[in-house]
Amino acid sequence: GIVSLISLAVLSYERYCTMTGTAKADTTNYRKTWTGIVLSWTYSLAWTAPPLFGWSSYGPEGPGTTCSVNWHSKDANNASYIVCLFVFCLVIPFVVIVYSYGKLLCAVRQVSGINKGMGRNREQRILIMVVVMVICFLLCWLPYATVALIATFGKPGLITPAASIIPSLLAKSSTVYNPIIYIFLNKQVSKML
């Protein structure tokens, strides 16, 4: 899940850099791609390994069919880890995504001011894609984060195993949605289909 979140942030930043011209799109050089992949996995590993070394712990999630961070432990060790996960693995990637797509949209608007006709359609398509991606990101991850925070800081037993199933499934399925959004809202890709 964290790899998914970080990958979305890295992809949004890379897309911003490529579209605004701060980095050229080079289809023959995979160095930047591999760097993004390695950074995503390294960052994710850095945030998923601490429970193995005593900062919080892993345990059954929901009805006991999956494993996740022990959301129900109320000690300071666990609560501090949950807060750090929330900030560094949800809030910061979300800020990077909003920043990157916001700057990309601003750049497209500037170009649209020069090319009135074609630029306006492109601006609208990108705006729709950005809004849909951000909404999907929030729909997938916000319920899961909310359930985790309530389970950690709320009354014991407030979140039942059954109530945690849907947010968990939404979060774990989030990697599927962005390629679908990109395919259907990207004019170049949809022309090939």
TrEMBL record:
It comes from Chordeiles acutipennis. GO terms for cellular component: membrane. Keywords: Chromophore, G-protein coupled receptor, Membrane, Photoreceptor protein, Receptor, Retinal protein, Sensory transduction, Transducer, Transmembrane, Transmembrane helix. InterPro entries: GPCR_opsins, GPCR_Rhodpsn, GPCR_Rhodpsn_7TM, Retinal_BS. GO terms for molecular function: G protein-coupled receptor activity; photoreceptor activity. The keyword Ribonucleoprotein does not apply. GO terms for biological process: phototransduction. It is a multi-pass membrane protein. Pfam families: 7tm_1. This is OPSP protein. It is found in: Membrane. PROSITE patterns: G_PROTEIN_RECEP_F1_1 (PS00237), G_PROTEIN_RECEP_F1_2 (PS50262), OPSIN (PS00238). The keyword Membrane applies. The chain crosses the membrane at residues 79-101, 126-153, 165-185. Residues 1-182 form the G-protein coupled receptors family 1 profile domain. Belongs to the G-protein coupled receptor 1 family. The lineage of its organism: Eukaryota, Metazoa, Chordata, Craniata, Vertebrata.
